[in-house]
Amino acid sequence: DGEVHINELKNGNAEVFWNPTSEVRRQRLKRHIVLFEEQTDFESERLWQHVTSAINKGDQHKATQEKFVLEEEQRNAARERRENSTEWKPLLFRHDAATNEWRYKYEDLRPWDPLNDIAQFEKNGILQTMERHLSTRMSNHKTTCVNSQITRHKRSAKDCRRRKTSDQPSNHSQNTESSCSTPESVQELSDDDGKYLGFGSLCTQCGKEMNHLKEIHSAVLSLQRAQQDIHR
């Protein structure tokens, strides 16, 4: 987001190649870093602090010296590990033998879920996603509702079998069997709300949760449309 100039070596002329507007500068992503005093010894900002300081001061000779000292320490440490047969175990990366590449251990390649994902943050070098867990709560509650309805149907069928084996008159037995041969009617949900595994309609809490999710989804779509209008 800074100016870029082109210098013509033949005649010494310079011209502005890129000069970002204030709007472009405002769109720059905010940089989030770990506080220096909370960084470990091998984090780049702390590890290269003396080299960086020399570069910022324009002292190229000092920067080269600090870089040599740092790299020599790393060579000595590697030599000691070889002599002691100590294996270096990376904290945050693993080696993929198939591609011969180093991969971040905690990479999350799933798409961003605007209804459930709130923010991404880093803690101890591990990238994590803060979630609302609405979908998890809905899933758990639906499972509970389904299990309760299954139990109720089983109990009803069991009662029917008991009545059939009783010593009641034949006409009464036939009536009882007729009334219990099929479980209570089941109302399926629409495709939009999910079939709910075919066990009855949504309970009150499920209905509220579903309506809440619909409201959030509508709000997100409205924001997305507003963003597109702004960009246009």
From TrEMBL:
| GO MF terms held by the record | lipid binding
Coiled-coil region list: none
Question: Which InterPro entries does this chain map to?
Answer: OSBP_sf (IPR037239), Oxysterol-bd (IPR000648)
Checking Pfam families in the record gives: Oxysterol_BP
Specify residue ranges for compositional bias: Polar residues.
138-150, 167-188
Highest taxon of source: Eukaryota
State where composition is biased (Basic residues). 151-164
Q: Where is this region: Disordered?
A: 138-191
What is the name attached to this protein's record? Answer: OSBL5 protein
Q: Which organism is it from?
A: Alectura lathami
